[in-house]
Amino acid sequence: MKCDIITLFPGMVAPALHESILKRAQERRFLEIGVHRLRDYATDKHQTTDDVPYGGGPGMVLKPEPIFAVVEKIHREQGETRIIMPSPQGKRFDQKMASAFSKEERRLVFICGHYEGIDARVKEGMPVEEVSIGDYILTGGELAALVMIDAAARLIPGVLGEPASLEEESFASSLLEYPQYTRPVEFRGLRVPDILLSGNHKSIRTWRKQQALLNTLRKRPDLLADASLTEDEKEWVDRQCDTVKSHS
Q: What is the pTM (predicted TM-score) of this model?
C-alpha cells in the first residue's frame, strides 16, 4: 500500500508513522508513506497557504494553488492516485473501506484540511473522495488520515505477525470481539472464566463465539444483520434478546 499525506503540520503525523505496526510495515516494505509539507508548494516568498474567505466570515481557508501543485507532482512522479479528503461531510469510513484501501493499487493521497476548510475548487477540479471517520470535528485532517492508514495497513497480508489475529478482531466477522483474559487467574476477586482454563478447545471456541454474539447484541445489535450465523447461533441470539432487554 502506498500513501501520501499532504499537511501543513508534518510534525502531527511523524510520531505515529515511526512507532508500532506502521513503523514495522514500512521497514518491511508492505507500506510506503510520503509526507508532504504544504508550505513547500506555496507560490510566494512568504509560503502563504491560506487566506480570508470570500464573502466574509471567521477564520482562514486553505488556498487551492499549493494543493494542486503537490497533488500534480505526486501524480507526475508516482503514477495513478486516489485522492482522499478527510471530512465530516464524507462517506463513513468502515472496515469494508479499510479493506479496499489495503488492496488499492493506486497511491492513496490524503489531503489534510485545517482552519475553516479547503477552497472548494480543490473538490471541483480534482476527483476527490470525502471520507469521514465520525460525526465530530477535528482540528485538522491529519488524525483522520492516520486512522484510515492504520486501519488499512494492518489488513495487508504479512503486516501482522499472526494472521489469525485479524480473523478474531471486532468487525472482521461483523461481530464485536469476545472478552480476552491473561494471567493472573484471579485479580482483586475477579476470576478468569473456568471454561478458558479447561483445555477443551471446542468448548472454548463455542464460548468465545457466544460471548462475541452477546457483546454485539448488547452494544451494536445493528451488526447482527450482516453477520454470518448458523441456525443454532441465531436461535441462541434470540434466546438472549429478552435477557438483554431486561437489563437495558
A: 0.88
